[in-house]
Amino acid sequence: MLMRYFQILLLIFGVLTLNGVQAKTPAVPEAVLSFANRDIAVLRTSAQGSTPEMRARRIHERMRQLAQAELAKPVAKAHVTVDERKGYLFTIGDQQLFVLYEADRDAESRQTLDDAAAQVEARLKEAIEVYLASTSSDTLLRGLVKSLLASLVALVLLWSILRAARVLLDRMHQRLGQAREDSKLRWASQLWLLILRFTQLVMAFLWIAVAYLWGMYVLGSFPLTQPFADRLSGFLFDLLHSLGTGAIAALPGMVTVAVVLFLTKAVNDVVGNVFNNIVQGTSIVPGVHRETAGATRRIVSVLIWGFGIAIAYPYLPLAESESFKGLSVMFGFMLTLGSAGIVTQMMSGLVLIYSRALKVGDFVCIGEVTGVVKETGVLSTKIINMRNEEVTIPNAVLVGNPIKNYTSGADEGAMVSTTVTIGYDTPWRQVEAMLVNAAELTSGVRKTPKPFVAQKALQDFYVEYELFIQLDRPLGRVRILSELHGNIQDEFNTHGVQIMSPHFVLQPKNNVLVSKENWFADPANKP
Questions:
Q1: Beta strands in 83-193 (DSSP E)
Q2: pLDDT tens digits, residue range 311-353?
Q3: Residue 272 within a domain
């Protein structure tokens, strides 16, 4: 009993497997019967052991072997039944060509066998007429003459395009060469390479267009190649139709994008004017300083344009295409990988700007670099040092180091100092007066505010004096200090004051001090 059930299961499994194999059996591929480059019929069924491809190849070979006299005979068709399969037999004169079976019809179309046979008959007659015409010497000669004339016209057009492009480029190059002396067109000289590439692109497009039209005309001059010309023409018109349809369909979106970008620019211009007024000092906005107005304007402009582009993006013609999406993802991925350092520099730049640690024209010292700030950028800051060298420092480095800003105010210039040590036996009022006189004799030192002296420290053997001055040109600090030091030596030598600081080994018998009558020795002024 168990064995019987097992046999039944095996039988069911075999039937299912056989059905599955039969269901997966691929259909016989169809084949196109063509003659003289014209499609005559589509064969979809096998006949007498021959596949549609074999049938099409044999029929084509049979027709090629017919002589022109036989091909000139009338084409006829007759209803036949072969192996209980209905069809139409096509003959030319006494020669049998092929049978069109009912199974050769397109199953999805509503065309009857009679209609399909009539259509095949018309196509066969047309193909034979074209073949006979293509072998005519008059037709060939006429086609060759047309082809030669078309080739001559094409060569003239190609030469004209090349000549016109060269003349245009030469004139534009001369005009751009003259633009170097014209301030209004000086920027145009930088666009020469772009103009050259654009002209070459237009010339290549025109050459391809001429070659394309020449190929269409030459192929259409011979009956045998007329279908190829029709295909080229159809492809061209389909392309123009697709471009025109796409342009018309994209027009509303492009108008929307233009309106959004126009409004975005208008808002950005208004905001830019407000920040420009803050920079010029004609407007005051709480929380926005003149030093940070420029950076704030750029940040707000980026936000405004980002918001406008985000609104306009869905209306772009290629916004929904897969290639555009893939390109956006690729750029986003690249920006994510490479933006870590850039974002760090940008944030550091914002910290510098909004902390107002320095500005253009300030005399600063950052680490081993001392000079005047030339430019404060988003990623780096440029400083001109004492040797007139441009030093670029990344903003992240600036934030991580202390910044010494010697410029105390916009109108006071940069403050520098120099130190001398004088013994206690020299009146301090005399020392201060001599230092101030030496500073006033030095070129490049501002008269206002007036130089002043501070007693920095009372050391064991001497007093440490520090002279403070304001400079008009911070970059001339080395030269100005050199001149100042020379004037200090001359001033002290003139009044017989020793600059060398005393270091005692033994205490003198008398106290080292300044007598009261010498407190206001020259050049100090008495009160």
A1: 85-92, 95-101
A2: 888 888 766 667 666 767 777 766 666 555 666 666 776 676 6
A3: no
**What is the DSSP secondary structure assignment for residue 315, as one 8-state letter?**
G
pLDDT in tens, 491-519: 888 888 888 777 766 666 765 666 677 77
CATH (domain of 446)? 3.30.70.100
Tell me the pLDDT band of 27, cut-offs 50, 70 and 90.
low
Residue 474 to residue 486: CA distance in whole angstroms: 19
pLDDT at 5: 45
Q: Write down the pLDDT at residue 452.
A: 92
The H or E element spanning position 240 is helix 226-280
| Greater model confidence, 90 or 277 | 90
Name the H helices within 1-136.
2-23, 52-64, 68-71, 113-134
Q: Could you list the residue range(s) of the whole structural domain that residue 417 is in?
A: 411-518
- Of the three residues 86, 119, 134, the one that is the final residue of a domain is 134
Minimum mean pLDDT among 18-22, 104-108, 369-373, 381-385: which range? Answer: 18-22
pTM reported for the whole predicted model: 0.47
User: Does residue 273 sit in helix, strand or coil?
Assistant: helix
In the chain, count of helices (H) and strands (E)?
12, 14
How many CA within 13 A on the CB side of residue 7? 4
Q: Which residue has the tokens 């994209």?
A: 250
Distances (CA, A) of 338 to 303, 334, 342, 349, 393: 21, 6, 7, 18, 20
- What is the per-residue pLDDT for 334? 66
With the CA atoms of 353, 354, 358 and 361 taken in that order, what torsion angle do they form, in degrees rounded to the nearest 10? 60
Q: Which ranges constitute the DSSP H helices of 24-86?
A: 52-64, 68-71
Q: Which residues contact 55 (CB under 8 A, 6 or more apart)?
A: 31, 33, 43, 46, 47, 98
Cβ-based burial of 495 (10 A; exposed 0-12, middle 13-18, buried ≥19): middle
Residues β-bridged to residue 394: 380
Rounded CA separation 272/419 (Å)? 48
The encoded tokens of residue 43 equal: 């064969």
Indicate whether 254 belongs to any domain: no
Pick the last residue of a domain from 187, 221, 255: 221
* Token couple for 164: 């016109």
The type of residue at 493 is N
Q: Is a pLDDT exceeding 60 seen at residue 16?
A: no
Rg (CA), the chain: 48
